[in-house]
Amino acid sequence: MFQILTPSGALNQESPLEVEMIRRLYRAMVFARTYDRKGTALQKQGRLATYAPFEGQEAAQVGSAAALDPDDWMAATYRDGAAMWMQGYPLELLLAGRTGDERGGSPPVHVPVLPPSITVGGHMVHAVGLGWAAKLRGESRIAITYFGDGATSEGDFHEAMNFAAVFSVPCVFFCQNNGWAISLPREEQTRSETIAQKAIAYGMPGVQIDGNDLLAVYQTTKEAIERARGGEGPTLIEAVTYRLGPHTTADDPGRYRAEGLTEEWRRRDPLERVRLFLSEREVWSQSWQQQIEKEAAEEVDLAIERAEGMSPLGPGEIFDAMFESLPPHLARQRAEATQQ
Ligand SMILES: Cc1ncc(C[n+]2csc(CCOP(=O)(O)OP(=O)(O)O)c2C)c(N)n1
Predict the structure, then answer these.
(1) Which residue in 18, 42, 316, 323 is a FRET match for 33, CA 20 to 30 A apart?
(2) CA-120 nearest atom, ligand 1
(3) Which amino acids bring their CB within 6 angstroms of ligand 1?
(4) Is residue 151 part of a domain?
(5) Residue from 290, 281, 296 nearest 28 by CA
(6) Residue 43 belongs to a domain with what CATH number?
(7) CA of 181 to the centre of ligand 1 (A)
(8) The domain containing residue 287 runs over which residues?
């Protein structure tokens, strides 16, 4: 498994990033964790319908998204808020989506990110379509798709991987192997020893990396993006990580996994090793930490305010996002729903 930054903050090899950039990405991870914890709290207060926390997966999401160009496409899941935010998806829309508000799924047109996919694996074929379209149009943008270990058991994974390899589509398949698909452990998901080795069957490179290592994630994703942009086709990255929290706010992981395992992974916290690295170089301090945590909390609170300040939807509007013109039975239901 490829690793650059060890859990104790030491380098196995030269860093692909300057210290100042690592500091910026650390700040982004602090921001992501703040957002994530507030997401869970909001759900518990009944202000979100459901929330899927990504605590423990910040390096995988922030490190990979940092390697993208601003117009590269992203198709991700309900657990990928940090990656989506890094690529420009407005936080207030991520939050609004979690209340069930359809407007949360319509980012501004200049944001190259699809709404989060709840359908496991379904968005992977969309990412391949976006990458293929970019290639046919002679554009230099690539597509990245994020998915979990469980998604690799879906037919969509096979179709997306095969099509991307056959047509040399500029696409990066980024699997966050976080150990579990709800309560199903990765070992019961597939007989393959690794997720990365599945790439061999499709005829593309596959690489397994320490997904809690910001630098390994950044470097590997950067190389995969460069391959894709250079016309060399797709890559599968397996970022080995761990979901420290529950699957969603409706889940109790105590029923299917040992607390000791989670504690073990807490010692491999993706933020802590970067903090140690920065501290060693004297570019981290307690006061800076407090300052960035405060700034993150303020920014997230503002997004919450904006999301909660959106005008309420009328009963007819749930019919409006799917069809250009409503089929007759839905038109009838819409009329009924909107009758005073
Ligand atoms: C097609 C489909 N089947 C089942 C579900 C129910 N479901 C939601 S999340 C999930 C597990 C997904 O696990 P994984 O792909 O490893 O991602 P993770 O949630 O761990 O990030 C399942 C089975 C769904 N949303 N979509």
Answers:
(1) 18
(2) 26
(3) 79, 118-120, 147-151, 178, 180-182, 243, 247
(4) yes
(5) 296
(6) 3.40.50.970
(7) 6
(8) 19-309
Query: SS3 letters for 190-227?
Result: CCCCCCCCHHHHHCCCEEEEECCCHHHHHHHHHHHHHH
326 within domain boundaries: no
Q: Which residues pair with 22 in a beta bridge?
A: none
What spacing in Å lies between the alpha carbon of 301 and ligand 1's midpoint? 29
Distance 78 CA to ligand 1 centre (A): 9
Residue of the CA atom closest to atom 5 of ligand 1: 120
Q: What is the mean pLDDT of the segment spanning 96-121?
A: 95
| The ligand 1 atom nearest the CA atom of 177 | 16
Give the residue numbers annotated as catalytic, written as ranges: 243, 247, 256
CA of 275 to the centre of ligand 1 (A): 32
**In this structure, is the dihedral angle defined by the CA atoms of residues 167, 170, 171 and 172, taken in order, positive or negative?**
positive
3-state secondary structure of 121: coil
Residue keyed to tokens 């949360």: 104
pLDDT digit string, tens, across residues 35-91: 999 999 999 999 999 999 999 999 999 999 999 999 999 999 999 999 999 999 999
330 domain residue, yes or no: no
Residue type for position 174: F
CA-proximal residue: ligand 1, atom 4 (nearest): 120
Ligand 1, atom nearest to 186 Cα? 16
Residue 110 lies in a domain: yes
Q: Which residue in the block uniquely carries the two structure tokens 């930054």?
A: 5
Bridge partners (DSSP) listed for residue 174: 146, 237
pLDDT at 274: 98
Confidence of residue 321 (pLDDT cuts 50, 70, 90): confident
